[in-house]
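Objective 1.3, modelling of assemblies. Example input:
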Amino acid sequence: STIVLLFEAPKDFIFNLQPGQQIRVGEGLGSL
Amino acid sequence: SLTAGRGFLPRPWPLPFLFVTGGGYLGYQHYKRRSQEDDEAPPSLATPTQVALYHSFPTRLLSRAWGRLNGVELPTWLRKPIYSLYIWTFGVNMQEAAVEDLHHYRNLSEFFRRRLKPAARPLCASSCLISPADGRILHFGRVKNSEVEQVKGVTYSLENFLGPQNSRSKNSSLSFRDLLLSCPDNDLFHVVVYLAPGDYHCFHSPTEWKVELRRHFPGTLMSVNPGVARWVKELFCLNERVVLTGQWQHGFFSLTAVGATNVGSIRVYFDQELQTNSPCYSKGSFHDHSYVAVGDQVLKTTNEGGVVLQKGEAVGEFNLG
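Predicted structure (tokens):
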């Protein structure tokens, strides 16, 4: 199963992620 | 002599033969893809015939049968060995489960839906957006030209994924992506989280937002593991999914739960009407349910039209079959 998030944000939104990384509920995905 | 010997020979069964050969073929393709993945080679996409073959498999029927099987109550003595095998195979961490005693879970479906201890998932306070699920980040980035990448180099159409928007007819000169944006200075972003079989399978609200619409797309239930996502273009548009759309502090926001063969049904806690992986729905259609005022009827859970979700709040879960 998969969850897909699609969202609008200011252009300076930055992801704090690496492709393939393991993640858990509540961990930050990105910030402004 | 063939006619005479017919009584002795086993009858050919075309359907099981098709399943076995087809399954073997897909297994081989999966093995081939894994090898390519390891080599970090560019994805090799399935041909339309291969996709049509996979698409024609009765994956929804198989999924429901799998769900029925896993809903059978297990005798107490059998629970520990069965769940231990599952834990060992998929690397489940039972120390974070709310109930660690394996005898407590009556069947594999209950075990799959296990809850976590209250403090097991602290919420990141410094981030405006948190992970909605446990899993692996398959892909993330900006949406360009109304095409979204399910994995690097394999795209799907945003319009096929979300379905038509009401605002589309009002201003047809704008692209689908631009129609979703409330402010031209903003951009559209996406994140894909893949949940492996051993992961905690509830999903939570990634931010504070208001859900206005639920759109249910009954579809096929192909595997969504990263290998298949690299192989089948538009996989997320073909599979059964539930799209929740609404608004957050920066404008448009959506969360989509995509089902798979083994995990075919999706539950949303605040929506009792939603029924997924049901034989009454046909592939290719979609069904809307608005959470904003409908005529004179306003849902109790709404606040100024829409279901308000807090950051980290439990939203729903995936179920076996």
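The first strand of chain B starts at residue 129 and ends at 130.
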